[in-house]
Amino acid sequence: MTDDVLTAALVAELAKKTSVSWLRVPGEARAHPVWHSWHEDALCVVSDGDEQPLPHDGMDDGDLVEVVLRSKDNGGRLVTWVGRVSVLQPDDESWTPVTDSLIASRVNTRDLATAADEWAERSVVRRIAPTGEFLESPGDLSDDAHRAAPLETPAITRGRLPRVLHRRVKRRPKLS
User: I want to staple 49 with a disulfide (CB 3.0 to 4.6 A). Which of 6, 103, 123, 158 is the partner?
Assistant: First the structure.
């Protein structure tokens, strides 16, 4: 087997076992963490609406994005590959299988029965198929830190944190 075949198999296995990947639009320094599902040899992602935010520039039909997959065990970066984006529409024949896969991997949603309909109205469903180009692979990882400052967010704490009543007192055991 060639290294490319092994790396492609690693990509499929990592994408199936992990639920988070990082997408980077070429030319942009920031990688965007996204939850995903792996369906029919492609990474499937839903964004916008009530779902995760993703940039619109560079994520249209036919655009190329970089996908970073990490180890589920230790979080270490294992492979970075290039994928071609296709934006799915509700009338596409692949819409139902892809959204079913996304719903099955969705951890928390209001109503599983209506999720696909809500995504059709307010969100964007993308399928990212590997092109076969690998930017990083095991044994050939860059030494860059890949660190970035967190994004600004309107999220705030709703109020004071709750008080803890009857907190246990930690006592040291007597040694003699």
Answer: 123
